[in-house]
Amino acid sequence: MNLDQNQIQQHNDSLISNHQVRLNNLKNEWNGIDLEKVIQKLVDFQIAIPSWALGTGGTRFGRFAISGGEPRNIEEKIADVGLLHALNNASGAISLHIPWDIPQNPEEIKKLAAQYNLKFDAVNSNTFQDQPGQPLSYKFGSLQHVDKAVRKMAIEHNIEVIRQGVALGSESLTVWLADGSCFPGQLNFRKAFENTLESLQEIYAALPADWKMFVEYKAFEPNFYSTTVGDWGQSLLYASKLGEKAYTLVDLGHHLPNANIEQIVSLLLMEGKLGGFHFNDSKYGDDDLTTGSIKPYQLFLIFNELVEGMDAKNMDHATSLGWMIDASHNVKDPLEDLLQSVEAIMIAYAQALLVDRKALTAAQQNNDVVQCQEILQHTFRSDLRALVAEARLRAGAALSPLSLYRNLNCRKTLVQERGQGTVATGL
Ligand SMILES: [Mn+2]
Q1: What is the rounded CA–CA span in Å between residue 142 and residue 128?
Q2: By the number of CB atoms within 10 A of the CB, which of 56, 106, 210, 412 ranks highest?
Q3: What is the pLDDT of residue 330?
């Protein structure tokens, strides 16, 4: 479904007076701070939506298509992201997964995306499943596999994904491997690493000059004893050995419990090796829950390091890193879930932009631990939602995307258009 600009306008008109009061309160509260600069950064910041988050996800116990009207093909996936972007002006890119989303006609797909003002973010390869008719199996790994023929098949798949991405105007490849082992003794760790590195080198050699390769790590699952790209140290090893186009990708859900992700982010930025970021939230493991739903303070602390570390290197917040949501679960309307995630990310980003860096540096120099905490929590506890809403208003999007989505009965329209029983491709 396509949103009519009048629908957004009417919605904004109904909320504008209340919004102005809240915004003016913020302006008074942050008197002396250049809020215009912050608002412009919020307007510019875009978070890519992965094609696999547009349908209800599943667990290994089952999958419940709750809402219906799920996108049946790549065109409808683009339309869904276009709808999100029209509502919030912060979802201006889509990330495709090959082979779930192979475009039959890349030129047409590019045109369609441009109509919604969308770009193509990183393309993602898939060597964690066997596809129908595939001659060899990834059961015991892909790029790490003891059999060179399996490694070759996985390498060729990744190179094919690059080709698909080039045709769409994407500029990066994300490699996430399920490779690892489930039992002690199953794998020679060193050989698995060396095989993986050699395979990644062949893929790296096929990258166009202006492309980046993101090496994503994950501590466990689906392998439960070892993972061949198990943590940021291993990812950084691969990325460093591969070369300047290779970077580490941080997925919030891919750490062991209580990992200090903000410190990881800070050090990767220091090394110039943080390339991409996957947002989600979790209580226990890779839960794929809505960003900011469980640990909003951690999300803020991560953004605090992102802003500090990127500014230290004169990086552009909006374009220097690949920002993406990577979540998919069972119980919410996926589009509502994504609107909530984007909102949480924008709020955390706004909070990080308003941290008083000078005062924090001074307090750190003086070992004033109490003041350091006060400075961080002052912005974290400020309600900056009106600032994020103002950025949307200026960009022609909705003051309250979720309520407009509900008021317009968007899901009902999608079900009418696509049917009750539609299931999107993906996990
Ligand atoms: Mn991820």
Answers
A1: 8
A2: 56
A3: 83
Rounded distance between C-alpha atoms, residue 388 and residue 340, angstroms: 13
Domains of the chain, earliest start first = 17-418 (3.20.20.150)
Residue 278 C-alpha to ligand 1 middle, in angstroms? 5
Residue 244 per-residue DSSP state = T
Please list all protein residues whose beta carbon sits less than 5 angstroms from ligand 1, which is an ion.
Answer: 251, 278, 326
Ligand 1 center to 410 CA (angstroms): 28
Residue 325, beta-bridge partner list: 279
Q: Taking the complete model, does pTM exceed 0.90, yes or no?
A: yes
Both tokens of 329, joined, read 């679960």
Tokens describing residue 100: 């779930």
Closest CA to 119 of 315, 279, 310, 319: 319
Per residue in 45-93, pLDDT (tens digit) is 999 999 999 998 877 788 777 678 999 999 999 999 999 999 999 999 9
Residues in Cβ contact with 300 at an 8 Å cutoff, skipping those fewer than 6 apart: 348, 351, 352, 376, 379, 380
At 245, is the secondary structure helix, strand, or coil? coil
In a 3-state reduction of DSSP, which class is residue 11?
Answer: helix
Query: Contact, 158 vs 211, CB < 8 A?
Result: no
Q: How far is the CA of 277 from the centre of ligand 1 (A)?
A: 8
The tens digit of pLDDT for each residue in 103-129 reads: 999 999 999 999 999 999 999 999 999
Q: Which two tokens stand for residue 158?
A: 């990744």
Confidence of residue 154 (pLDDT cuts 50, 70, 90): very high
> Across all residues in the chain, what is the average pLDDT?
96
Q: What is the rounded CA–CA span in Å between residue 345 and residue 41?
A: 13
- Tally the residues of the chain: 427
Residue 405 makes CB contacts below 8 A (sequence gap 6+) with 87, 335, 336, 339, 411
